[in-house]
């Protein structure tokens, strides 16, 4: 899942970003509404976490821009305003969810995951293929009942491949969905991560490489 975090409280934004990356999400962070619009216009995000009270272009205005532009990114607004009227107003702008500060980080993660599952097409919280089970909510992975110790990037790549449901996924698509904007598109990071994930999954092989096309997760054809 790829997430954008926009909050003018830099420490808060950086802490949220670091925490979400530990949950195997690809996260870009910016500190104002203009930066959020710039990134939303270039990258495809599953969820945008927007501080409602940013100076300059506010989270409200970014939310309106998303709606007007027809962007399908789900929006979670963050704000210190806890009144019912504030929540109703925020949701009325087109936001999908609303969370007041201060908040428990575990709740933020759960809400982002829930919004990600509401993307089109809807993605179930537990994905399975040929004995490989990935539970996104619990952040666990099993192969034939064996617990797998996956790094956040391996978990993210597995999630993208399982979501594809047997479709071939290109290296470029994996880079876009599992890494943030700072990833080097000319590096071998995708190939290396797929290689280590394949090794951890064990036999029979579950990830198949299609030369010049990408990767497919599933039983051998």
Model description:
The chain is 39% helix and 21% strand. With 221 residues, the chain is of the alpha/beta class. It folds into 2 domains: 2-117, 3-Layer(aba) Sandwich (Rossmann fold), CATH 3.40.50; 126-217, Arc Repressor Mutant, subunit A (Orthogonal Bundle), CATH 1.10.10.10. It has a 5-stranded parallel beta sheet with strand order 2-1-3-4-5, sandwiched between helices. The protein is elongated, with a radius of gyration of 18 Å. It starts with a strand and ends with a strand.
Short description:
The protein is built from 8 helices and 11 strands. By secondary structure, the chain is an alpha/beta fold. The protein has 2 domains: 116 residues, Rossmann fold; 92 residues, Arc Repressor Mutant, subunit A.
Layout: helices, strands, pairs:
Blueprint: E1 2-6, H1 10-22, E2 26-30, H2 33-40, E3 47-51, H3 59-69, E4 74-79, H4 84-92, E5 97-100, H5 105-117, E6 126-129, E7 132-135, E8 140-143, E9 146-147, H6 152-163, H7 171-178, H8 189-201, E10 207-210, E11 214-217
Parallel strand pairs: 1-2, 1-3, 3-4, 4-5
Antiparallel strand pairs: 6-7, 7-8, 8-9, 10-11
Helix pairs in contact: 2-3, 6-8
N to C succession of SSEs: EHEHEHEHEHEEEEHHHEE
Share of helical residues: 25-40%
Average pLDDT reading: 88
Strand order of the largest sheet: 2-1-3-4-5
Number of domains: 2
Q: Strand percentage, roughly?
A: 15-25%
CATH class of the largest domain: Alpha Beta
| Major beta-sheet overview | 5 strands, parallel
Kindly report how far apart the N and C termini lie. 27 Å
General shape: elongated
Spans of at least 5 consecutive residues whose pLDDT stays below 50 are none
> Treating each run of at least 4 consecutive H or I residues as one helix, how many helices?
8
Query: Total number of β-strand segments?
Result: 11
Fourth-level CATH superfamily of the largest domain:
Response regulator
CATH T-level topology of the largest domain: Rossmann fold
Indicate the structural class: alpha/beta
The radius of gyration computed from the alpha-carbon positions, rounded to a whole number of angstroms, is 18 Å
Q: What would you say the CATH architecture of the largest domain is?
A: 3-Layer(aba) Sandwich
């Amino acid at each position: 899942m790829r997430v954008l975090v926009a909050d003018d409280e830099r420490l808060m934004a950086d802490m949220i970003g670091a925490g979400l990356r530990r949950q195997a999400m690809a996260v870009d962070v910016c500190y104002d509404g203009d930066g959020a619009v710039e990134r939303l216009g270039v990258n495809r995000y599953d969820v945008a976490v927007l501080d409602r009270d940013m100076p300059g272009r506010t989270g409200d205005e970014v939310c309106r821009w998303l709606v007007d532009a027809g962007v399908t990114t789900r929006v979670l607004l963050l704000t210190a305003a806890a009144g019912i009227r504030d929540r109703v107003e925020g949701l009325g702008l087109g936001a999908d969810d609303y969370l007041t500060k201060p908040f428990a980080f575990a709740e933020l993660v759960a809400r982002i995951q829930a919004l990600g599952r509401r993307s089109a097409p809807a993605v179930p919280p537990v994905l399975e293929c040929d004995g490989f089970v990935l539970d996104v909510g619990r952040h666990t992975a099993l192969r034939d009942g064996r617990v797998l110790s996956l790094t956040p990037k391996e978990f993210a790549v597995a999630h993208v491949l399982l979501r594809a449901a047997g479709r071939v996924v290109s290296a470029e698509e994996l880079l876009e969905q599992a890494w943030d904007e700072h990833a080097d598109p000319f590096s071998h990071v995708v190939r290396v991560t797929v290689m280590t994930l394949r090794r951890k999954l064990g036999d029979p092989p579950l990830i198949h490489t299609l030369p010049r096309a990408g990767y497919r997760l599933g039983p051998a054809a």
